[in-house]
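fyi for ur records
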Amino acid sequence: MGKGPAKVSVVIPLYNGRDVIAETIQTVLTQTFKDLEIVVVDGGSSDGTGDLLETLRNKHSCLRVLHRPGKLGLGTAYRHVFHLLLKEPYDRYVSMDADLSHQPDSIPSLLCHGVQDLPETHSMKEPMEEET
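which gave:
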């Protein structure tokens, strides 16, 4: 992309994640990389997740919510969102699970090193060591 800070999209697909999504969004917002948009793809949740996401969208200007008509699977959720996002001026994409099994504080390290620079043995459960 052009000059200036990278534009990053953090993609979070979920289904019936009402109990976890607010904490997940807040945790992503508190990591150190700030120039990002959070895109949550709701797969037609039946537990009120969609309504909660709309409330959260009004609270966080960097949050975009995509509502899908039903539970169509994780793979189709990713295809749907990336089909849309690839038409927009993002430099990087990061996918996160809604249950925080991926640690949002790893986002800056992933963006700094780039996927091609990650050691093959790197685990998302352990932070990467700083290079000196």
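Strands lie at 8-14, 36-42, 63-67, 92-95. thats all i got for now
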